[in-house]
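Can't attach files on this board, so I'm pasting raw text. These are the components:
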Amino acid sequence: MDLKTVEQAFFIYFYISLSLLSIGVIASRNIIHSVFFLLIFLLHVAAVFLLLNSEFLMVVQILVYVGGVLVLFVFAIMVMNIKEELRHRRFVKFAGVGVGVSLLFFIVFSSLITKIKIEPDNVIVSDTKILGSLLYSYYLLPFEILSLVLLIALIGGILIAKKYPRESK
Amino acid sequence: MINQYLLLSATLFTIGLIGFIIRRDLIVMLMCLEIMFNAVNISLASFSYYGGDYTGQVFVLFSIAVAASEAAVGLAIVLALVRATAKNHSDEINWMKG
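---
Top answer:
Structure tokens for the assembled complex are below.
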């Protein structure tokens, strides 16, 4: 078995499992089940990054999404103490219209995708050193602005979620 | 080939879009936003891989950081909303009568 066949088999596995996991996120009735489907989904996306020869992105994906964002979701569910979703209906009234519009979007988008031709003449090799030097030389200003954005999101998140004392009249 | 990765990205984006439109729960809507962010990240990484340019990977890094801050602010807004009104469904929040 040559390398191309193995890569293709892995890609087909990731395609099927990523589709099923994201359907599981949007269709499961219990919200904790959605979070755990999202956990496995994010780990599979990290594996797809590894398939695309970008190791640093895989590490960042696991660190930031699985270690940060998902823990934030779990904490938010725990703080809000949501239980009543089991008794209510899951979808909005116009769910059929939403599915129709999304499928129309998918049909148009996939018909555009099949026309794209990029010959893999110079496929990149996995090299984190080049990425780091690019990040600290050419993209230095966006990198610094990004730290400012993260700081503002931190302060804004704390300020919005803060519990204010009841104002007495 | 690049087409199959772009098709994967389009499929995941569509599933996230369907979930964002049809679900009522605000936290599940935020999770669908994360699915859509991940779909776009896969397409950027595949363009970086097949185009032979590292700029796509740098952009994915920026996108992941912006997604993290978006999740933090969005969950803070949902938390404040649930605390103020005890409602966490998107179709119950209709005081603006838009």
